[in-house]
């Protein structure tokens, strides 16, 4: 929480007490992702008077401010930055409202913005006209469009807004962040009364702003929190001291502790993903078991062929399984007997789907057990060499661990087949690239849309209903979504090519068939 808004909200006035009236002496960088800013009451030839140093570490994996008592600049390999501010006096320092950013305003009217957005943190110079003139990290080019006004957000955090959101605190307090959200959600668990929930939210809000800072360990990694959690190492009451203590604790983290924490966090995430999959899949099974069976509907139709009128779209018949009337949907272009045959086919596919879901549950349960065993073994390892050897032997490397397919692409299971849908143009390219040559590939014809892939099952032909369903999805996730009828390209993936230089989402197709469908989502 060292970059949480509610911590920064307490850090900013503390920085104001240190910096107001001081001159900007210099800013320089002598490492790629590190910035040093020096302020002082005045600059003499021999030494600085009451200097104050801000050190910003802004790597992709760790971003943090710290405040060393002194900092000796290297004579070589350092670069001056933000030169326009030299000699300018600080007027005030304040937090941007409801945002993780600090505004340092100078008497000249210029601003230096500390944007503290995790691995997208940056230092931004703004001139008197409010225009961005310099970035510390130029790769974050969108920061050139920021303004002081855009970094101050008005959010209705009243009781009335809480009621309007049905007692959900997240829309009112997007500033809490993951750790505080989890902490507050735990306190709210089982509480349904809105007034009681509001009281708990206000109590946690006071706790977040109480000027008590905890240096703790969460999953073996040092953290700065605003409430008691994890393994408490130190309790502080000054935000600058707290940030310094956290920074030192983090950079002193041993190689074993850090690598173990990384792999433990990864394994716990995979276990949580597996738990979510198991829960969703079990619910699908329950829904299938509780639904009226397609073979029962077919039997009811066959028992009443003589009373079903021609071209009927639905019919009410006697359900002899439950001793009550039942309304059954029919396809008007088919005879009653053909409608029954359709339900028998669905019943066969329904059984295939249930068997597949049961197999999938068993496989995922085995995966979960294996992950738990890895977790227990890793937590007991005491040597870095043994940890790395175990991770390599079991192929648990975080860098090579690809996200689960469920996370990469939209997924639908239909009649025992897996249908994958690209989330956007770049994601669709990835889906097509990862697809097997015998997978079936779909795309709405002549318009932009998602790539859709049906995974091949060796030795089995793709059922017509599966092809139709995938085509419906390709139509739905395209610009033809609202057309009455949509032409969709269908072809084995081996006939789809992506030459170098083509824009995201664009491919060349060597051979194709067209199916006409009505767009239909999940």
Automatic annotation (TrEMBL):
InterPro entries: NFACT_RNA-bd (IPR008532), RQC_Subunit_NEMF (IPR051608). Residues 416-509 form the NFACT RNA-binding domain. This is Ribosome quality control (RQC) complex YloA/Tae2 family protein. It comes from Dyadobacter fermentans. Signal peptide: none annotated. It comes from the Bacteria. It holds the Pfam family NFACT-R_1. The keyword Nucleotide-binding does not apply. Keywords: Coiled coil. Residues 347-374 form a coiled coil.
């Amino acid at each position: 929480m060292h970059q949480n808004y509610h911590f920064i909200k307490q850090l900013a006035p503390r920085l104001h007490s240190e910096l107001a009236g001081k001159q900007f002496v210099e800013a320089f960088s002598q490492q790629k992702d590190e910035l040093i800013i020096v302020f002082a009451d005045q600059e003499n030839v021999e030494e600085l008077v009451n200097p104050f140093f801000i050190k910003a570490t802004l790597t992709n994996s760790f971003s943090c401010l710290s405040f060393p008592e002194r900092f000796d600049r290297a004579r070589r390999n350092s670069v001056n930055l933000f030169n326009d501010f030299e000699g300018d006096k600080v007027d005030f320092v304040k937090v941007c409202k409801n945002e993780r950013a600090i505004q340092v305003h100078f008497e000249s009217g210029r601003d230096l913005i500390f944007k503290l957005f995790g691995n997208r943190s940056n230092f931004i110079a703004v001139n008197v006209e409010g225009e961005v003139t310099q970035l510390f990290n130029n790769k974050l080019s969108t920061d050139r469009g920021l303004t002081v006004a855009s970094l101050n957000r008005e959010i209705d955090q009243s009781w009335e807004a809480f009621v309007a959101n049905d007692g959900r605190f997240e829309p009112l307090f997007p500033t809490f962040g993951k750790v505080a959200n989890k902490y507050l959600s735990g306190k709210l668990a089982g509480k349904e009364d809105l007034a009681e929930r509001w009281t708990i939210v206000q109590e946690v809000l006071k706790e977040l702003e109480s000027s008590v800072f905890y240096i703790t360990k969460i999953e073996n990694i040092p953290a700065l929190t605003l409430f008691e959690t994890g393994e408490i190492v130190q309790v502080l009451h000054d935000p600058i001291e707290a940030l310094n203590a956290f920074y030192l604790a983090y950079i002193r983290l041993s190689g074993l502790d850090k690598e173990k924490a990384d792999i433990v966090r990864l394994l716990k995430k995979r276990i949580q993903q597996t738990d979510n999959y198991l829960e969703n899949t079990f619910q699908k099974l329950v829904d299938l078991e509780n639904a009226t069976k397609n073979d029962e509907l077919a039997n009811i139709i066959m028992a009443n062929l003589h009373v079903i009128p021609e071209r009927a779209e639905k019919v009410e018949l006697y359900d002899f399984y439950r001793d009550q009337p039942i309304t059954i949907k029919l396809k008007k272009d088919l005879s009653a007997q053909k409608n029954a045959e359709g339900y028998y086919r669905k019943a066969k596919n329904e059984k295939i789907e249930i068997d597949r879901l049961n197999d999938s549950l068993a496989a995922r349960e085995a995966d979960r057990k294996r992950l738990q065993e890895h977790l227990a073994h890793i937590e007991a390892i005491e040597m870095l060499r043994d940890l790395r050897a175990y991770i390599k032997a079991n192929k648990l490397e975080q860098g090579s661990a690809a996200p689960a397919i469920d996370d990469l692409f939209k997924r639908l299971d239909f009649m025992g087949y897996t249908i994958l849908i690209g989330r956007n143009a770049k994601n669709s390219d990835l889906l097509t690239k990862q697809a097997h040559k015998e997978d079936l590939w779909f795309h709405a014809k002549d318009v932009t849309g998602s790539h859709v892939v049906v995974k091949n099952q060796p030795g089995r032909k793709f059922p017509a209903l599966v092809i139709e369903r995938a085509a419906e999805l390709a139509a739905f996730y395209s610009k033809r979504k609202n057309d009455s009828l949509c032409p969709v390209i269908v072809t084995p993936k081996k006939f789809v090519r992506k030459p170098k230089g083509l824009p995201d989402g664009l491919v060349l197709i060597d051979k194709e068939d067209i199916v006409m469908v009505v767009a239909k989502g999940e």
